[in-house]
């Protein structure tokens, strides 16, 4: 049995905290069957890849993009649509990636703040409570007019973080604010008697008042933690009052450090991660992957993959701009990002991975300007596939040999296609 330390985890609002031991049992089969081999696996994640037509009967962003290399690869690959969490449920990036890594996102529940903290290199202690922070804009009536403060540049975000670190003073805890990127930051509260069982202050929509942070379980720890979080937000509002457009903070994804079985424990993989955004580095660290220094832009990430090829047998490569374009409602830009990735596919194939998956962590249709519940296209390439289509797109994947399936099965499929699993049973 994989050792899983007894650390507090973050429950979903309205649900009790899951039994982590039950979640470990789901990975036990991988641990028992996996074997160390020389074969290599690449998991290429285009964040928010799934999409929708802007008009009925039209093409999705992926279908509209000019992708001759991905289409050629699709004609030699298994295709399917993954379901990140459950039917009709729109996942956050954390649950979306945990599913891709083979962890059931309904059982392994990790606060976004934990991922952000790990992603910026903050060493979380067992008693630390972390939350993701967005700098945001309040209008004259106190309502949120922009959840991302006009996507302020990182230089401004760093300045605001310095102000908060210098001036925030909460009784009974140490407070650390760290900049993540652009309008994103993370706050960590360090002290005894804290809990991650808290609801967000971010209503996820503009035109609404920020929400008070409330406990989602009846406990003194949760009550105290909610009071501290609200006090932090109140002080931040005073400090940022004249910093328009970043005159407030929204806090979400409260959590404390959970223990997850590592890739080495569960899959016997020496895993590496190539990602530009801190949160995805945090996800990789949580799974026990070695972080690689990414190059400039998407091409730089592929160059890092090439340079790191001999040292690992599993590579997680993360492409963020697809998601950002979808959230901005920019259909054409999202298609162009996909096209840029397509031009780099031959370089990836030159490395001769034994199993390659091209997919996303969730859908981010430009039509909705947000994450959505729609199926995520998956292309799985190896010498052992059953091709069913000539192009890579949502409709082709819906009719592919893999059908529609839970995202946490992707790691098992990759392990099988890389011949890294022994036979089950006699």
Summarize the structure.
The protein is built from 14 helices and 13 strands. The chain has 426 residues and is α/β, with parallel strands linked by helices.
Please explain how this structure is put together.
The structure is a single chain. This protein has 426 residues and is of the alpha/beta class. It has 14 helices and 13 strands. The chain has helices at 20-33, 61-64, 68-74, 93-100, 112-119, 154-167, 220-239, 263-267, 278-286, 297-308, 321-327, 331-350, 394-398, 410-417; strands spanning 41-46, 78-83, 128-138, 144-146, 174-181, 184-190, 248-255, 271-274, 290-291, 314-319, 355-359, 376-381, 403-406. Strands 9-8-10-1-11-12-2-13 form an eight-stranded mixed β-sheet, with helices on both faces. Strand 3 and strand 4 (144-146) form a beta hairpin. It is globular and about 60 Å long.
At the fold tier of CATH, the topology name of the largest domain is Alkaline Phosphatase, subunit A
What is the average of the pLDDT values? 92
How would a crystallographer describe the biggest sheet?
8 strands, mixed
Task: Please identify, by name, the CATH architecture of the largest domain.
Answer: 3-Layer(aba) Sandwich
Number of domains: 2
Number of strands: 13
**Which band does the percent of strand residues land in?**
15-25%
Please give the count of helices.
14
